[in-house]
Amino acid sequence: MRVFETPSELLTCIGEDLGRTDWLEIDQTRINQFAEATGDHQWIHVDVEKAKHGPFGGPIAHGYLTASLANYFLPLLIEVQRTSMGVNYGCDKIRFPSPVPVGSRIRGLGTLTTAEATKDGGIQAKVTVKIEIEGQERPACIIETISRFYPE
């Protein structure tokens, strides 16, 4: 994890590698819970028997489940101290180069892509999170996250 002592320190570290997280296993329970939460019950995710005969040889995680895990990985990659609050501002580009089969392990790798002052006194930072699948060359997801950090 990369620790920044203040939000303004982000401005001097653009392009910095933020490291990588530990591996996280993606099991069928997590996929089913995501399906329940979002109403996306497509068979390639939740019907184990049918998915075995489908294009991926078994169930896969929803793309948006994988993308949402960027929010799980971010605080493991970056900490900004001396803030009154930090907020998720949004995302720019999101891509899903590879599916995540049930039982796979994934992890996040981060890069501080941009940082700039905002009109309301905060610092807006874009962190590109690449979500890797253990043993695969192509990542599961590449997502450009945008956060705002406000000083104390």
What's the short version?
This protein has 152 residues and is an alpha+beta fold. Helix content is 22%, strand content 39%. The chain has a single domain (2-151), classed as Thiol Ester Dehydrase, Chain A, CATH 3.10.129.
For CATH, the homologous superfamily is named as: Hotdog Thioesterase
Q: Beta-strand percentage? A: 35-45%
Task: Give the CA-based shape.
Answer: elongated
Question: How confident is the prediction overall: mean pLDDT?
Answer: 98
Order of helices and strands: EEEHHHHHEEEEE
Query: Roughly what percent helix?
Result: 10-25%
Q: So what's the CATH class?
A: Alpha Beta
- Distance between the first and last residues' Cα: 22 Å
The secondary-structure class comes to alpha+beta
Can you describe what's shown?
This protein has 152 residues and is of the alpha+beta class. It has a single domain (2-151), classed as Hotdog Thioesterase (Thiol Ester Dehydrase, Chain A, Roll). The chain has five helices and eight strands. It has helices spanning 28-38, 43-46, 48-52, 63-68, 70-77; strands at 2-4, 17-20, 24-25, 78-80, 83-95, 105-117, 123-133, 141-151. The strands form two sheets. Strands 2, 3, 5, 6, 7 and 8 form a six-stranded antiparallel sheet that branches. The mean pLDDT is 98.
